Amino acid sequence: MKILLTDINNKNHVFTLEESIRLPGEGVGLKADIRAKLSFSQQKDDAISLRGDLKARVISSCGRCGTPVQVDIEQNFQYQLLLDEEPQVETDYECTDEDCELLYLAEPLIESSDILLEQLLLALPVQMICDTACIGLCDQCGINLNKEKCSCREINQNSPFAILKEL
Ligand SMILES: [Zn+2]
Ligand SMILES: [Zn+2]
Questions:
Q1: What number of H helices and E strands is found in the chain?
Q2: CA-based torsion, 91, 92, 93, 97: positive or negative
Q3: pLDDT higher for 158 or 134?
Q4: 38 close to 17: Cβ distance less than 8 angstroms
Q5: pLDDT digits over 25-61, tens only?
Q6: Confidence of residue 116 (pLDDT cuts 50, 70, 90)
Q7: 35 Rama class: left (phi>0) / alpha (psi -120 to 50) / beta
Q8: What one-character-per-residue DSSP string does 46-108 give?
Q9: Which ligand is nearest to the Cα of residue 138, counting in written order?
Q10: Which listed ligand is nearest to 141 at the C-alpha?
Q11: For the whole model, what pTM was predicted?
Q12: 73 CA → ligand 1 middle, Å
């Protein structure tokens, strides 16, 4: 959803959004159903503060075995939107909050899914796994070792890793 910032004044403007985002990526990628609340309020002529929170249900695939994984995420965030070209040098603009991010906008327009996607990616675990105990796929035959056994390991008994198992 595109939000036009020229209508924002110093009152709180709250937008409640529901968006579905699909990220094609390595493996199956991910799909997220997001519910978010964005509140904008103007602070100066060219500065608008944006506070938001999002809740998302993310469906992706296990980084080890590839089975579908579902994670629920909640994230709060804050941006300072500056209606200006990004300066070449550091400016003296500072966010009051440490977690606040500066965002320069050449046009007084913001695409909510860009913000939501950025925050979603920040909130996601580095690797989505189905279970901390997931042992993944056999690197030889590709079988899902959580469900089935294969004989590849026995063949590799003489590999240096076999000794580690004895310890
Ligand atoms: Zn897994
Ligand atoms: Zn195998």
A1: 3, 7
A2: positive
A3: 134
A4: yes
A5: 655 578 999 999 999 998 888 889 999 999 999 999 8
A6: very high
A7: beta
A8: TEEEEEEEEEEEEEEE-TTT--EEEEEEEEEEEEEEE-SPPPSS--S---SSTT-EEEE-SSS
A9: 2
A10: 2
A11: 0.74
A12: 19
